[in-house]
Amino acid sequence: MCCLPLFVFACGQGPKVIEIGAPAPNFTLVDRQGKTWTLSELKGQVVFVNFWATWCPPCREEMPSMQKLYKMLPKDNFKMLAILNKDDPALADSFAKKHGLTMPIINDQDNTIGAAYGLTGLPETFIVDKQGILREKFIGLAQWNSPIHVQMLMKYINQ
Amino acid sequence: MDFIRTWVQALFFIFTNGYWNFPVTKGIYQGPLKIVCSPGLTCYSCPAATTYCPLGSLQQLLSGIRMSIENGQFFVGFYVVGTMGVIGGFVGRMVCGWACPFGLFQELLHKIPSPKFGIWPPLRYIKYGLLLFMVIILPLFALDEFGSGSTWFCKYLCPVGTLEAGLPMLFLQPELRTSIGLLFFNKLFFLLLFIIWAVLASRPFCRTACPLGAFYALFSRIKLVKLRLDPAKCTDCKVCHNVCPMGVRFNESPDDMECISCLACSKACKFNAITLEIGGLSITSQPRPSVCQLKNLTQATDTSN
Amino acid sequence: MMHKKNNPLKQNIRPAPFVVIFIFLVLGIIGITLEEPSRVLEQATQICLPCIGIG
Fold it and tell me: Is residue A106 packed enough to be buried (19+ CB in 10 Å), middle (13-18) or exposed (0-12)?
């Protein structure tokens, strides 16, 4: 009981891990096809960073809509990265194969990128603009090929 | 004994919810301790949680069972059920009375002055249905388009998840507030229901709805540590009926599936008829006034009335 | 009229709990050899928000 004040006192302090409007934390990782992705080298393109895991039902649920979005948007100035958070990459590979996912899947086994982005939970999605600035953060699942999200992404792509 | 039990409850609360750096990190504990099973019901998505919730983990594993088997990994819940079974085999529902944070929470709520009510006994069977359907059958067989189930109990019902994970996360991460919907209000309703009910009645969640309690209850006859009635000493004075927080009539059913071994009856029994035993060996036989004396005394007062 | 019986409490060790604990211990060890704890850890250290009713 005497520790309860500690709870209350500590609330609201501490640095924020990530902020909208600030440069997105950089990372370099290899995807499942062996291609290396470095976020800072993707300047000039809008980057869609999605964190997921195969065991998380809502993450799986939004994958087909992400695939549709990936097909729909121009490849040359839009990149989609599906970052597998602390999961078995073999499971992700078979899931991707089964459901025809073609976007790059990056294995973040140690949660290093996840920690840098201060993940609250899964799924979570970040939109990085052409200047490498973090513009949007979505916690929870979304229907990514719906007009509202496509418009939002087109706005950043056309900037 | 009550004092010791409170301390054990507090220790288990700290052990299972011991990560207090979450106001800084604004997230949950992600360290290796989470490989350890929490004996009681405590949400592992709680920012302070240091151990995993057996029910949550079991539902997750069962809901993904097809996917893992297709990939040659047999994550079917052996580790989780094995751990739960070992705990159950040792102490059974003693966990509810001694180690469960939500049990402690309900006990504290019940101390709030109010008119107190009993709980209609047949409601106790609900929890076995919840264990069977919400924790096992639905996660296993109610599949989505990707061939995997869902954590039905966590998602639609668990008040512990709302209290320990839902509300704190909404507090820590204000942007989450935009994403709350019907699902959350449904769970909030169950939390409020059990909070109000816990003030009015003793341990309503444990008695009616807890699937983990239901699992441990299956060990009521065979568990290592349990309470024993000495029928020779029992006078059927029924004092144990009134003190039991779980509504057990101990002298009528000493192996009751509702018994949480909190020892309230043992303490209340003037004839030392209820003792704690380990594997058949009695361990609490405190020196009390001689049974013969007490029996003669009560019989004398009985006849005089 | 009740008489106090003089035979003491039976102090026989019950084997049943040990059998049950052993069975579940074996089950748990099978789970460990199948590397299930690492899967539990993966799932326990990340929140699936909609799974707990948010998002």
Answer: buried
> Each residue's pLDDT tens digit in chain B (305 positions)?
788 999 999 999 999 999 998 888 888 898 899 999 999 999 999 999 999 999 999 999 999 998 888 888 889 999 999 999 999 999 999 999 999 999 999 999 999 999 999 999 999 999 999 999 999 999 999 988 888 888 999 999 999 999 999 999 889 888 888 878 888 999 999 999 999 999 999 999 999 999 999 999 999 999 999 999 999 999 999 999 999 999 999 999 999 999 999 999 999 999 999 999 998 888 765 544 444 444 444 454 444 44
Sort out which chain C residues have CB atoms less than 8 A from A111's CB and list them: 45-46
Residues A24 and A126 sit within 8 Å (Cβ to Cβ): yes
Cβ contact A118–B27 (<8 Å): yes
Whether A103 is in a domain gets the answer yes
How many folded domains does chain A comprise?
A: 1
**DSSP output for B252-275:** T-TT-TT-----HHHHH-TT--EE
Q: Does residue B211 belong to the interface with chain C, where contact is any CB pair within 8 Å?
A: no
CA distance B106 to B122: 20
* Cα-based distances in Å from B125 to A48, A151, B210, B215, B253: 49, 52, 10, 12, 17
Distances (CA, A) of C44 to A32, A54, B13, B285, C41: 25, 14, 18, 42, 5
- What residue ranges do the domains of chain B occupy? 2-217, 226-304
- What pLDDT is attached to residue C11? 65
Q: With residue A48 as reference, give the H or E element that holds it.
A: strand A46-52
> Is residue A5 assigned to a domain?
no
Establish if B80 touches chain C: CB-CB under 8 angstroms: yes
* Sequence-distant (≥ 6) Cβ neighbours of residue A50 within 8 angstroms: A62, A66, A80, A81, A82, A83, A123, A124, A125, A126
Give the domain CATH number at A96: 3.40.30.10
Contact criterion met (CB below 8 Å) for B277 and C17: no
- Residue A115's domain comprises 19-157
The fold adopted by the segment(s) B226-304 is Alpha-Beta Plaits (3.30.70)
With a cut of 50, list the residues of chain C below it in pLDDT. Answer: 1-9
Nearest by Cα to B164 from B5, B6, B29: B29
Q: Which two tokens stand for residue C30?
A: 């099978």
Which residues of chain A fall below pLDDT 50?
A: 1-15
Query: Is B176's CB within 8 Å of C54's CB?
Result: yes
CB atoms C45 and A141 under 8 Å:
no
b/e code B181-218 from CB counts within 10 Å (16+ = b): eebbeebbebbeebbebbbbbbbbbbbbbbbbbbbbbb
CB C48 within 8 A of CB A58: yes
A81 domain-assigned = yes
Chain B and chain C share a number of CB contacts under 8 A equal to 176
Does residue A11 lie within any of the structural domains?
Answer: no
Q: Residues B294, B271: contact at Cβ < 8 Å?
A: yes
